[in-house]
Amino acid sequence: MQNALRVLEGRWKLVILFQLFGGQVRRFSDLERAIPGISQKMLIQQLRQLESDGVVGRIVHHQVPPKVEYHLTEWGQSLCPALDALLIWAEGAPAELRSRLIQEGPDGDAQKPETSVT
What we know:
The chain has seven helices and three strands, in the order ααβααββααα. It is mainly alpha-helical. A three-stranded antiparallel β-sheet has the order 1-3-2.
């Protein structure tokens, strides 16, 4: 179980995965814009870890300027039902807890509620 959770640990990995669900292929710059608060260095690091763990695939288009796209591998896409269930579980939290979780993230930063990944 610890090895499975290690693949998902980190502040940004789940956010990145949600951006790639549904077979989406996203450019690095699109991911950077879609995830406010993440530094370029952290996004690169998290994507590399997800890629080395076989969850995310990387496509390099040899052109000028360089174009790099990311997508979920078939194995990565199989996470969708599990993470959708996690969202449903979080939405079932008591109202006072749920509103506090939505208003404050782990660092006390204001957060937007996430939407389901179907």
